[in-house]
Amino acid sequence: MRAVADRLNRVSWGLNRAALLGAALAVAVMLAAAGWQVIARYLLNQPPIWTEELARFSMVWGGLLGASCAYRLRRDPTLFPDALQATGVRGLVFSLIRSLGVLCFILPILWFSLLGPGGDPARGYLARLAGRQTETMDLPMTVFGIAIPLAFAVILFHVLADIMTALANLEDEE
């Protein structure tokens, strides 16, 4: 079990590095778009129409990818911060409770991102976005909407790695 937990953790940390890079890039794009909007509006008197939309979508990407990083680094808000350092059976119980809470939130989001009512993929969130375009940048909305299921899929992988690590730690202690 330790080998599986270690492998999942390596992949989870790799996903975390990619998400952190994506979040940093998204925030940089957001700041650049908002900065250009201010310069163009107040200095050039000709604000471009696409900067506000780009900044908004970049904020969504940065926030969601950043949330996955916060979960992996155990920096997400919790009522019991000391529980994140618990070991043994207590650590396993706290890890399972935390994971259950997260799963109750992310699994429906992932489900409805991919499938709509009645399990119909054509009525899922991403399928509905596929037929829409952004207002000012003429890009498919899927380019921006994919951030939601992508970030939550990364969190789901982190949850699985946490559960396997807690089980492996308990097995090692026995």
Helix content: over 70%
Number of domains: 1
Report the β-strand fraction as a percent range: under 5%
Number of helices: 6
User: What global shape is seen?
Assistant: elongated
- SSE class: mainly alpha
Uncertain segments of ≥5 residues (pLDDT<50)?
none
- The count of strands amounts to 0
Radius of gyration, in angstroms, nearest whole number = 20 Å
Largest beta-sheet characterization: none
In sequence order, what are the helices and strands, one letter per element? HHHHHH
Model description:
The protein has 174 residues and is mainly alpha-helical. It has one domain (2-173). Helices cover 74% and strands 0% of the residues. It contains six helices and no strands. It has helices spanning 2-42, 50-72, 88-114, 125-130, 142-145, 147-173. The longest helix is centred in the N-terminal third of the chain and has 41 residues, at 2-42. It is elongated. The model has no long low-confidence stretch (mean pLDDT 89).
Features:
74% helix; 174 residues
Summed up, what is this model?
With 174 residues, the chain is mainly alpha-helical.
Fold topology:
Elements: H1 2-42, H2 50-72, H3 88-114, H4 125-130, H5 142-145, H6 147-173
Helix pairs in contact: 1-2, 1-6, 2-6, 3-6
